């Protein structure tokens, strides 16, 4: 059995026990504000807007994206053009905009935590042409240490930090937005 | 032994292209500096990461077992592979059990190391690499030249021509935006039709039994969430004890790799999707041997960010293919001699020991010190060319005997002063190929000192 | 304070003026400097080629030659680093341990031991500072561009004390010159290319003189400069610090 073989080899090879360091709390001098989150997210190509500037979430989505597009969302506040409970993952290939509630935002890198429970289908935030994440403004933390302290990564079968639209720089280091996943990311703060 | 030097010399023939390659990578290094210098606690994070890895390696068996137990609880099937061949067989058998034939893969240096693609193709399976850079080199039938930017050695004109032939893009089109869009359309079909998705693993968490996969394109997610079967292949060293440690490593990884504050997608997989299946293959393939080498076990801390390649002045000017190993550059030069000392005996010498690699390394691997140590082993085991070894034995004798040293110095100076130029600058004088020898002074410092200060 | 001067082999043979400048500078600063007879080399050429076993007699010769001093000062960060870092394979006698602490690069000795704060030196030129790797990343004579630390480098601090020196801003502050000991012979093409690229950076910055704490880097760069017929000069930092005001 390779398992036993590998474990035995490790036991014979491993160094004397080293202590596990305690990760300290890194207190940034600035509080985790919406402004910092917004400017860092913008640098990664995300657009951050406030719902109240659009008189509500539904208006915001409809204003940012033209009316004749298909929307998929589990949110009740917005009309979904596709029944997520009925659809198969591959059915979502035609979706133009996915609107998904998010749990947490991270100021230092503009990342937003989204779980399977929020998406219904894991593939939804990736397969849609455009992605809208809806984030409560008071759920922005300073850095990744705080983020991992607040979430439970195995709460659901799948969770992801999304820090911008899908991108690549694999051809001569030229940045191209819209590689395999969503071509744009809008974060709406509520 | 001279392999790297020969390939490097060939690469450098095209000086304009060498400059382009050097500058592309220096640009990434500069972005990394900017990102790292924006984090006041950067050096502290590196130290923490290094210590967390030290701790984990010293309890690796326990963490792997804990990881497996937890993953099983989550309904994930865990496999163990002693080497590349077993890894490939396991992956193949999982695919067979699920009647899977069309496979989409996201970037994984481990499967590259194991030669999985070739193996599966021989079994009549279709494997599509879905990271854009990987797809480019797969279509071009070349190995990656960099672990993060696999096609960094190619120009957009070459990608354009390749896509024209393989993906029917317009002849002469070179716009990266256009070419990326063509790949997107082509790969989307592969994602939708795939029977299985295979990914590498950036981090595996013992506490929760889950794996973390980082990409910018979202290709790993498109694969795993659409195909009914997902397989994650990981080396035994990918383990971290707890979820909280991801805070340290995610802050370091993308900043070190590309200068981004975060990879765009940091995906945490714990259970199969509804109706799907999830497998994890844990691979040794020489890692436990490396763990047993006190001077070199540090190399197992590597998180595959590629920063050491971007900063390496030799890598930037010789290209990844000059190393002829799955992982090129400084980290490759300390990993590969542990796998095949004779074959890779030249790589630890493909360095000036400048130490920049160790200082950019987010987990503080003492890369240049390991290069120095590999050199000692290579010489001890008799893999140095005879002439070189003999000249070192001779140098050792001369430099430990003041009388011999004085005489050798005098004659060296005499030779460079008085011998005719063609005799000195002959083909055997590699120093003189591009450089003048120093102008030899009449007297050495020691001779000057004796004349001027001997009274004191 | 008993101070010994260690003049590495290639400086002794090819750049005696660097040894002279180092000696005169130390004397100017009030030090009594001994130059132990029969000194040769730190053993680095063999060790970096993988033959540190063949270097052991040279290590032992170094220890014998330099025992009994409070400090050994050398105008080479690379040799000082080698003694301190790699003399771990010989028996760690009291003398060896002492030398592994007290073999200092000239700049360290000036700043950390003598606590030099000003110099009566004048060198009116635009100077490009080449940060030799072993001094920079081995001895930590500066923070290095890779690390997130804010401190001036030792060589920068010393050069700033010289009247007339204008330190050039380089695009790549501390990239390796490509010398690397036997690397220069094993990989002559890459080595020369790295040197050419460094020179181009200095030339773009309008540098008249390239200086460094290690003559070996400068020997390599000088060889390329002379082949190119470039007017740029090289000078060891000791030569600049030893100029007269």
Automatic annotation (TrEMBL), chain B:
What domain of life?
Bacteria
In what residue span(s) does the 4Fe-4S ferredoxin-type domain sit?
292-313
Keywords from the named record: 4Fe-4S, Electron transport, Iron, Iron-sulfur, Metal-binding, Repeat, Transport
A Gene Ontology MF term for this entry? Answer: metal ion binding
Q: Write down the InterPro entries for this protein, in alphabetical order.
A: 4Fe4S_Fe-S-bd, 4Fe4S_Fe_S_CS, FTHF_cligase-like_sf, Helical_ferredxn, LUD_dom, LutB/LldF, LutB_C, NagB/RpiA_transferase-like
Q: Which GO terms describe its biological process?
A: lactate metabolic process
Q: Output this protein's name.
A: 4Fe-4S ferredoxin
| Native organism | Phaeodactylibacter xiamenensis
UniProtKB/TrEMBL annotation, chain C:
InterPro entries xref list: Cys_rich_dom
The Cysteine-rich domain extends over 3-83, 127-221
Q: What Pfam families does UniProt report for this protein, alphabetically? A: CCG
Say which domain of life the source belongs to: Bacteria
User: Which GO-annotated molecular functions does the record name?
Assistant: oxidoreductase activity
The record's section on PANTHER family has:
LACTATE UTILIZATION PROTEIN A, UNCHARACTERIZED PROTEIN YKGE
Protein's name in the database: Fe-S oxidoreductase
Q: Which organism is it from?
A: Phaeodactylibacter xiamenensis
